[in-house]
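Late entry, evening session. Most of the bench is empty. Finally got around to the prediction I had been postponing all week. Sequence below, unchanged from the version circulated by S.P.
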Amino acid sequence: MAAAPIVTFSSIDWDYVWQGHQEVMTRLAEAGHPILFVENTGLRRPRLSDWSRIRRRAATLASPGRRNARSSFGIEILSPRVLPFPYSSPAVALNRLVLGGPIRRWLTRQAGRPIVWTYLPTPLVHALAEQLDPVLLIYCCVDDLPASSDLARAVVPSENEMFRKADLVFVTAERLREKALRYRSSAELFPSGVDYERFEAARVNPPDPPAEIRALARPVVGYVGGVHRWFDVSLLEAVAKSLPEVQFLVVGPSTVPVESLSRTSNVHFTGARPHEDIPTYLAHVEAAIIPYVRDEYTASVFPTKLVEYLAMGLPVVSTSIPEVVAFNKRHGDIVEMADTPDAFAAAVRRALKPQALAARDARIEVAKHQSWSARVAGMRSPSPAIRAAERSDTSSLTPALRS
């Protein structure tokens, strides 16, 4: 039997910072599933400041649609042209018509009923899923979406309904599983993983260092990923000023103001870089950091970068966000935890000492067991407990994902 086609509704765009969305779909494509990756259709209600963007988006609805792009992994990517009013019934109805057409045209080229795999639990996804009549509806909950902003809290009723309706629910954090279990009998925990073989190759045979690193004095402490509202800019600024002998390299796009941080002489920004280049950058730093704020949203965040750092054997310093704390307890305090500027700076100093660097084999061993291949294999074969707990009319459908 041919592998079932998968229509994925993503909460990020394909070319945004590489995360589990792209990793999971890439591996499912390699397993033979045709994939249509529908980029972010919107989560929060618009602000008045968004009006110019709304007018541009509305104008595109009447223009010829962009052809689907195809990633280097053979995945088709659909950039949606929708009105950015995710909780307006008229907008949802119009968006369903506009977006439903290209999805159905893609499905006519595939064999069999689709699997709908969504990272978004919005009314538009509910409407499209009902229209597509999937063999399986999977909600992959990777963030506490209502906590991401005040305007995103409107998604709560729709997400609760998704928890109830989905045939399978996958989560990346224990707190997300607890939330899901308020509305269903089971949810499967799959934290973010690492493309271990690719990071190992860069660690064992490091490529030449990128120009940004060659120009820096040693030691270099790295951060990879987005500089977003949960990146503690003020913390890193204070730490960098207290450690003038350490160079801090930030590899990733910035979506918040970083002017004060960029003026700090030993903090260096590369901007966005392709994910395939990340192992090369990490191969040429001495330690790595996760300077996240602690709030309602990050209480449910498991940073993908954590296991990538460990796969490179790097000492890691992180703020004490709950999922990293729990990971640390499971793996013998392998991560340095600190929350104040003084404590964080002291932890960075310890991470750069020879005894911390000597523990690299233990860090690598932990990362070996966090591979994306193992994560996706588990997703393709949900546990017997989940299958037994699902409704009898849908539990028999789970082989579609394994076919």
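Two things to note before I forget:
The CA atoms of residues 203 and 283 lie 6 Å apart.
Residues 6-193+372-402 form a domain with the Rossmann fold fold (CATH 3.40.50.2000).
Will write this up properly tomorrow.
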